Amino acid sequence: MIRSALSTSHRRRAFLRRPAALRCLALMALLWSLTACGTPLAQISTAYQSMAPSPDGIGRVYLGREIAQTMGHQGAGWLDRPSRLLQERPQAAIAALDLSPTDVVADIGAGTGYFARRIAPLVPQGKVLAVDIQPEMLALLEGELEAKGIDNVELILGQLDNPNLPPNSIDLALIVDAYHEFAYPREVMAGVVAALRPGGQVVLAEYRAENPMILIKRLHKMSAAQARREMAAVGLQWVKTDDRLPEQHLLFFEKPA
Known about the structure:
Number of helices: 8
CATH architecture of the domain at 8-13 and 83-254: 3-Layer(aba) Sandwich
Helix content: 25-40%
Largest sheet: 7 strands, mixed
CATH topology of the domain at 8-13 and 83-254: Rossmann fold
Strand order of the largest sheet: 6-5-4-7-8-10-9
Shape: globular
């Protein structure tokens, strides 16, 4: 990903033959067997695997999980749906972040800036770095920022494998309902970790895969165990899992000081 070079106002912008389901189950079984036997995570391959894509997947498997398709900017209206206030309780999620006025927060996969716009007033001496790989999303966000007079959100146009954040520049990275769609999660998270200051945190919000009653497509949910496994693979330490939200895990990870 490269930082937007727009004007100042734009800165706020025999395995492969098996059926797909069996291949995915086989990968998961291998991972579980390794961890059950006490194999350190660092010794478990983090290489991507390939499979025939599921209806909502891209056919790339990371640590036993098929990566979901990215929601295009055509679905931007869903991000700002009125029901989101009750379904996801975003204000409760933001309260859980315990932000300081000087914090620099990266909203990774910011989309239309649903969270970035709500966080910005809480960090008046800091700022929000809104990262997205779709210029169309950033353009929508820029319009919202200008309409609301918000001037401490900076837009960063990203790439599939790099958040393009400056090293040692952020206190917290928030990733809401987006991590499961990262085409190259290992590379993106390595970039996020490099951008975090020592002791900085990553917070994931993901719909709970453990609950079949949550009516979200399977690949667009994630279990707490899977999230912890993937964050550990890039050197982040699990801090806590906060289940105050109705349907999502709120998972906190920290970069060692």
